[in-house]
Amino acid sequence: MMTSRELIQLFNDTRTHTEHICSFLETEDYVVQPVVDVSPPKWHLGHTTWFFEEFVLKNNAPDYQIYDERYAYVFNSYYESAGDKVVRSDRGNLSRPTVSDVYSYRKHVTDALLKYLKKENPSEKILEVIELGCHHEKQHQELLLTDIKYIFGNNPLHPVYSEDFEENPIQDFPQEWLEVKEGVYEIGHNKSKDFCYDNELGFHKIYLHSYQISNKLVTNKEYLEFMADGGYLQVLLWHAEAWDWINLHEIRSPFYWHKVEGEWQQYTLKGLKPLNPDAPVTHLSYYEAFAYAQWKGMRLPTEFEWEVAQKNFEWGSRWEWTESAYSPYPFYTKEPGALGEYNGKFMVNQKVLRGGSVATARNHTRYTYRNFFHPHLRWQFTGLRLAK
Amino acid sequence: MMTSRELIQLFNDTRTHTEHICSFLETEDYVVQPVVDVSPPKWHLGHTTWFFEEFVLKNNAPDYQIYDERYAYVFNSYYESAGDKVVRSDRGNLSRPTVSDVYSYRKHVTDALLKYLKKENPSEKILEVIELGCHHEKQHQELLLTDIKYIFGNNPLHPVYSEDFEENPIQDFPQEWLEVKEGVYEIGHNKSKDFCYDNELGFHKIYLHSYQISNKLVTNKEYLEFMADGGYLQVLLWHAEAWDWINLHEIRSPFYWHKVEGEWQQYTLKGLKPLNPDAPVTHLSYYEAFAYAQWKGMRLPTEFEWEVAQKNFEWGSRWEWTESAYSPYPFYTKEPGALGEYNGKFMVNQKVLRGGSVATARNHTRYTYRNFFHPHLRWQFTGLRLAK
Amino acid sequence: MMTSRELIQLFNDTRTHTEHICSFLETEDYVVQPVVDVSPPKWHLGHTTWFFEEFVLKNNAPDYQIYDERYAYVFNSYYESAGDKVVRSDRGNLSRPTVSDVYSYRKHVTDALLKYLKKENPSEKILEVIELGCHHEKQHQELLLTDIKYIFGNNPLHPVYSEDFEENPIQDFPQEWLEVKEGVYEIGHNKSKDFCYDNELGFHKIYLHSYQISNKLVTNKEYLEFMADGGYLQVLLWHAEAWDWINLHEIRSPFYWHKVEGEWQQYTLKGLKPLNPDAPVTHLSYYEAFAYAQWKGMRLPTEFEWEVAQKNFEWGSRWEWTESAYSPYPFYTKEPGALGEYNGKFMVNQKVLRGGSVATARNHTRYTYRNFFHPHLRWQFTGLRLAK
Amino acid sequence: MMTSRELIQLFNDTRTHTEHICSFLETEDYVVQPVVDVSPPKWHLGHTTWFFEEFVLKNNAPDYQIYDERYAYVFNSYYESAGDKVVRSDRGNLSRPTVSDVYSYRKHVTDALLKYLKKENPSEKILEVIELGCHHEKQHQELLLTDIKYIFGNNPLHPVYSEDFEENPIQDFPQEWLEVKEGVYEIGHNKSKDFCYDNELGFHKIYLHSYQISNKLVTNKEYLEFMADGGYLQVLLWHAEAWDWINLHEIRSPFYWHKVEGEWQQYTLKGLKPLNPDAPVTHLSYYEAFAYAQWKGMRLPTEFEWEVAQKNFEWGSRWEWTESAYSPYPFYTKEPGALGEYNGKFMVNQKVLRGGSVATARNHTRYTYRNFFHPHLRWQFTGLRLAK
């Protein structure tokens, strides 16, 4: 467990960084929700604040005044047991509270939590919830970046977020196959002093047959070969539901790709740019990652194969789709109460992604981290690594 | 036809008044589109501006510089023959252009049009298009008010638009039945000097059997009697599709009514207020207006009955649903080209409303004016008057 | 009013003819419902039977035994006030009662009604309901033919219904324009001894400006010219909602037309046949009829123009779309109770069709008859006649 | 591999048994498709026949005459690479081919295949496809029973399929917990002489931590306790998507349960019967099975835990939901060509079920058999067994 002093530092850094991410926005950019999976930036600002108010301050901080009773309704996300909430698809329909109101709300809660941390002597249990709240906010920092990318990338004017945000780091080394021997391996987080989510527990054994895994992510150039070979038109490469999905939505390339006068361009947070063939391919669905692997005569690794091999390759620029469905580990137990809704209730019909991305907050990911999304989603910085 | 000087006055007043309506808004309020029928206020500001740029300046004003080529795509509404456009349901997904950009666009076009009107000698045909553009903008002034009401009225914080906007004027006189004799009557606009829309032409004869029409609109108090008698539960009062619709959407009262601690309240542009029993009922669908009339053993007037009798009663606070479907008058012809899309292409599956409302722009309505909406829509200031 | 003897004759003929229409079917053909507007033939057989049981026998015939209490639930169509019913879209999901059961049910009710008519002395009111029931069944005879055509015409095997059913009679005379003078005309059914529906009452006056109307229906050859000129691609010819509809459904020709090896064929009740250029075009929506008229620089007649002129032209092979919305006549009143649901509750968002079709039962239509359908529907034998 | 003689026996038995299942139906029962997951019985009869025609006879049997070229379009299910096909939701819209035609088609193919098997000397590869075709038809035998149950169970008349079909065998012994020790285990089918599907291959090792598994299925009585405790109303027991799903569809009990005058009844293939408290609960979704286990403070076994323990308990009356997502085994490879579509393309977003049910064909299931369905489906004879 962190010391109170470390926690104050973490809390301060986290709150400040969230606001730094938003400092590049115009007021209007905070408001819109162009698709249900994307939330308005002001909602992220309010929701991460509500988390501390609801789960820490409300019932623990002496004399804490709730900023506005109605905000719980506006800023609850999915905690069914914490009361009613705005329907998710309505988040972008709310012009009020204004951005300025939301920043006031943030300040009110930030100040109150710091005062509480400094003046009172919170129990270990509460310190843990505050630490969870910081990691929760770091997750929303990543969502802020990917949601802003969606908001800008689907605007016909293609605005620039920041000229300094580099989302396409090159893996400048030769591709090799790393071999892993058959045997019993240990998986998961050995709950020590360091923070982890409940879905990384408990530490347990699995059996792996021998396999090979690539030291590099698949690049745009490689993915273009798949496209050139008619990969999107070969039914036998695709899952049944994937085939229906790509045809219904006429998907023929990764998300954010635009063919402009015969050349592929990619919308990035720096604006519309020529596609870099050497960058790792990104913004594809699990379906597309799977079809690409099929086309190569290979496969995606399981999350266990990834975790066992990861110390031998670089990772962190793309969330890597794995073949593993998101399921509970053998000794998994949920927290009691609303915080038990954090992870467990999503453990069906989703795929595990491992690693991290250019948008992931600093110190937020780790090799046991289990991210998860529905197989058709593409707005995160997803990518893939082959196994065989 | 107006003189050029009168037209400059009209144009200036119209442009200024649109911006006055928006002066009560926060930046965030300009952006959202909570339902497809409602457009974001900044879209109205841009669209009414695009109208002058597209149909007047672009092809007529010497040296006119288009403000931004991409705005035509953003601000076209339904003129299919004027090029591609943002899908209507996406208007609220666009954070850019910003509100400030849109005001700059307005100023650019306002200035250019004034310069064009003052310096050049526009043909009568072009003056007519400019006059049409002013009336078009007045229509959007009404939509701005009703769309703002929707945006605020569906926000859980129920913001106030303006304490000065009185939307519930009382008809403070006794109810009487006005008698009209059987015979041939003349209907429509006798295209003289004054402006009218093409759908009010041409002047023609119709035959009416004798009828009676009320001098008053139906009030909240009267509508509450219908509700108290289970009007929403009596199937025989409703059209087949109306019955399905009220049950699907669980409609049991007019729009914007809220039962708070046993008392009816109404969201108004002044905020949430106790329902005034003497005010004319408003925000109901044609279906509800029809069912109410059935329940009274009476009926709605046709648009012809309304037009013939109107000089004998007060009107203008509510758009009054009529029994008439929106169809072309006998001598109706469409303008050639895109402006022909203004009215004619909506002449199916809509109902005519007559009169005007508390939100209608000054000098915009007249006794031949034919407004039209789909029978289920309720976000306009609609009301009803009985006939028998 | 008919004599009891005439009514027995009418009843017997009607019941027998319904079964004759079905005599060309296989058992399987009685069961399916390929689209919600089409009902399974066995449902029509049962529903027309239930009508007599529900509205005549149940409450009037002494000692009448209800055949099966559960059938009311299965065979009620839209009489909300007559109890619960199978959801319309579920009619094709019911394999039971079997066809054989339904014929037994028919026999039970037919016999009971004849016995009741012969032995008792029904009041005039009840005789009227029985007469209405016969006309109701005649309407379903037409629906049986059009629904069977839909069932067969949308089956990839394109079965033949009957080699003897001629649906394309030629109008073998030159096209002429009939002139009608301006003035006051009388419209509607002068409720005498003859049967009519409530929507044809009451007899009333209207005013018509002078107009011309064609003595012929538009032919396939003429419609092909519209298609060849890109009629389906010219946005200015179409209503706004029509344009969306034809593009969503990729409609580029009338229903039942198939281009087979470069030649137009038409599915008919005789099977797939080469399109006859001289036959009146059929199976088109109001939207298409309207767009064709626009393209010709003409218009559709109103239902009043049609009624006033009809004695000077042949009609009866196609239901002719008119420009008139389906609205109540000035003196219209609904029956009390469930039978009041027969016509009135559909008087919104539908268009009036006049005339009759090759599928209309003998002695069923008349020049005051007001048929009505939603403007997008095409499975009836619809057609059009121009006016100007 | 089977001998040719054994295969003839298997083929004959399978074809005959399919027709026996249908021998209890009326013609009408063969035709309907009340929901997209359920196919009309005549479609099953035709599809299982088409399988042999398409994958065996067409390209291998000398002089084989295709029965009707158009049937491939009608009876293909999901083999995208084998040509176009009727959209799945349209299967119930086809009255033709008639039931009698389909039986003729069956006879034509059965006879041709027997002739081919007896006269020619098919390669081992082809014999394997024929064996696969028999197992394929056995799968459809189970679907026939569950689809017939759906067709009858959702008909308001609740017809009886057969008084002899016992679907509720009692497990008449005490509940015990079977212990399994931690260690490495072998999983999957050791492809020997016996038939298995490709998804059961290859034989491989997994690691299990120690666990306990029940020797009995959960009973109706036990499930009623969950319901009585408000299990369907406690949000923390449910997956997020499950919670939305049960509320959208107002699911408050297993499928086919009806509360009749205060008592629970269950529709069975014998008709509507009082619920037997001692029978294993059935017709529930994975979501409900999971929520029940949560409520007990336990969990569902993984498919590996089930497979390792299965020799110590009885199974076969219910398909048992497991916690395992349907994923490829380590050495899984797809067949080349259309038969490769048999299993692999469904390996996403589905859950594995183990065991077999009262409707499973004789000799069809085995302890390595991996059945799979989407987590919300309830029309199969599903059930659950607890682990901890």
Automatic annotation (TrEMBL), chains A, B, C, D:
Please name the InterPro entries in this protein's record: CTDL_fold, DinB-like, EgtB, Sulfatase_Mod_Factor_Kinase, SUMF_dom, SUMF_sf
All copies of domain DinB-like, residue ranges: 11-142
Q: Which UniProt keywords apply?
A: Iron, Oxidoreductase
What pathway is it annotated to? Amino-acid biosynthesis; ergothioneine biosynthesis
Q: What residues does the Sulfatase-modifying factor enzyme-like domain cover?
A: 175-310, 316-388
PANTHER family for this protein: HERCYNINE OXYGENASE, SULFATASE MODIFYING FACTOR 1, 2
Q: What is this protein called?
A: Ergothioneine biosynthesis protein EgtB
